[in-house]
Amino acid sequence: MNPKIGILGGGQLARMLALSGYPLGFEFVFFDPSVDACAGQVGELVCADYHNEVALEEFCQKVDIVTLDFENVPVESLRFIQKKKPVFPSPEVLEIAQDRLLEKKFCHSYGIPTTEFETINSLSELKFAAKKFNYDAILKTRRMGYDGKGQYRISQVNDVNQVPESLFEQDLILEKRIAFEREVSVIVARNGLGDIQTWPLCENKHKEGILTTTIVPAKHSKLDDLTIDYAKQLAIALNYVGVLVIEFFQTETAVYVNEMAPRVHNSGHWSIEGAHTSQFENHLRAGLNLPLGSTKMDGMAAMLNWIGAFPEHILSINEEKLFWHVYGKEARTGRKIGHSTLLATTPQELHDKIVNLVKKLGVQF
Question: What global pTM score does this model have?
Answer without folding.
Answer: 0.94
